[in-house]
Amino acid sequence: MADLSQIVKAYDVRGVVPDQWDETLAELFGAAFAQVTDARAIVVGHDMRPSSPGLAAAFGRGAAARGVDVTSIGLCSTDQLYFASGQLGLPGAMFTASHNPAQYNGIKMCRAGAAPVGQDTGLAEIRALAERWSEEGAPAPAATPGTVTTRDVLADYAAHLRSLVGLERIRPLKVVVDAGNGMGGHTVPTVFEGLPLDLVPMYFELDGTFPHHEANPLDPKNIVDLQAKVRETGADIGLAFDGDADRCFVVDERGEPVSPSAITALVAARELAKHPGGTVIHNLITSRSVPEVVKEHGGTPVRTRVGHSFIKQEMARTGAIFGGEHSAHYYFRDFWNADTGMLAALHVLAALGGQGGTLSDLVHQYDRYAGSGEINSTVADQAGRTAAVRAAYEGREGVRLDELDGLTVAADDWWFNLRPSNTEPLLRLNVEARDAETVARLRDEVLAIVRA
């Protein structure tokens, strides 16, 4: 029996094409997805990678052979696929490897209404079926195969987003957007059309080989071009999207990065103005400023583990109006609890354009602490090193520990979190404090133990 453990991850399928998976396997995934979701119809979309159209078509053939009708929306961003799943009430599959290098591809799957499919919600069963069928052969086709039709939902997606944020009366803004040759180059022109925005596009040509830089704005080297262009053009704001355009990163008018925690707090305040008293989800790596701002605006903050499946579960459980992560994933109840960087970007543009000041002045109220960013250490014994850190801080006066996700150690004026990677021999450290000196001291203290 084939072993798909290397490509079926916690939340999606991801691997090198054709070395680790190909169109033959994609067809089996399509058949398995149809069986596990018990769907009569599904929606399928794909990004701009060279392998994506073929993989998506194969997945559709596999589902259609099981008697399932397939709606292909073609080129799209991941949040555009979530929109189609929500709007059409259909399970969906998005072919993308997000920010990974060109030779990778993957599948992000969801149930109707953009509900996530992960290991505990269907992905393990899909993997098991695909493994079995790769050994035994695909199941017999249905007596009546499903149809495959195409549909363009880009205009509907743009209209839905714009219906959620009032942008018509904002002051004119100059906006630099770096699409990284990813799907932002496809969605941004339609979403921004007719708004009072002077758009300066960068790398809008769809090219899955990423000729200019990786489409991963979380890595500082990949926003250097955007920062330079913002300064050069005197723009009010810069936006960078990752490869499948579900995450959005922001730089201010000086070309300085705005932390995703500050964006989370800003958007939370705006969503609470629309939905007074609402609940806002934040993962435990976001800044303390997030729950503070949520409480100040009359909301209830709920802290959760890192990862979109945990956020979406908590969104559904609590009826939360919004959720944010340190990795620039932003989730909205008005968007089927799914993540959409584009909607977060529109909120930031509305907030900036609704007043006369600069973006750096605007976000200052939401960016209250110094932080280390995420620091990775390669270790042979994740559990042993974490236990050593726990022993060093346990019992100290005024220090609290919890293990919601890794180890969090907190005092009144600082906290740090140490989490193991699920896929690599790494420990990830995040530190936050009232001042940079305390951050540096804690960072060095903890790393000395981790790397001993």
From TrEMBL:
Belongs to the phosphohexose mutase family. CDD domains: PMM_PGM (cd03089). It holds the Pfam family PGM_PMM_IV. Gene3D superfamilies: Alpha-D-Glucose-1,6-Bisphosphate, subunit A, domain 3 (3.40.120.10), Alpha-D-phosphohexomutase, C-terminal domain (3.30.310.50). Keywords: Isomerase, Magnesium, Metal-binding, Phosphoprotein. It comes from the Bacteria. Residues 6-134, 156-255, 263-369 form the Alpha-D-phosphohexomutase alpha/beta/alpha domain. It comes from Streptomyces luteosporeus. Residues 374-447 form the Alpha-D-phosphohexomutase C-terminal domain. InterPro entries: A-D-PHexomutase_a/b/a-I (IPR005844), A-D-PHexomutase_a/b/a-I/II/III (IPR016055), A-D-PHexomutase_a/b/a-II (IPR005845), A-D-PHexomutase_a/b/a-III (IPR005846), A-D-PHexomutase_C (IPR005843), A-D-PHexomutase_C_sf (IPR036900), Alpha-D-phosphohexomutase_SF (IPR005841). This is Phosphomannomutase/phosphoglucomutase. Its cofactor is Mg(2+). Coiled coil: none annotated.
